[in-house]
Design brief:
Length: 124
Amino acid sequence: MSMYFTKEHEWVKIDGNQATVGISAHAAHELGDITFVELPQVGKTVKQFDTLAGIESVKAASDIYAPVSGKVVAVNNKLEDAPELVNESAEEDGWICRLEVANAGDVSALMDAAAYAEYLKGLE
C-alpha cells in the first residue's frame, strides 16, 4: 500500500482501486485541537483537488481537498463523536473517507513520504 501527500497536507493510501484519505500529522498539529469534521456524503464524486470535506479546530476552519479523483464509498463515522481522533492518529484511525479511484494516474501529481518531508522543511 502506497501513501502519498498533497501540498495542502492531505494524505492518501492507495490499495488497488480504493483510496483512504485524511490529513497529515503535520496538518493536525498545526490546526491544534480539532473540534469538528464535516464528512463528505457517500456517493459524492470529486475531481482531484476539489473540496472533499471540512475540518474545524480551536484555531481555524479549513477545507480538505481530494488527493485523487473518485467517488466516496465510505466515511469515518467515528469522527462525528470523536473528532479528536484526527489529532491522536491523523494518519491511521483519524482517516476521513475512502474513495473509489477514478484515475490511477492522479498519484503522479502527489508527493511520496520522502518528498513530503522535504516539502515540510521548506515551510519552516
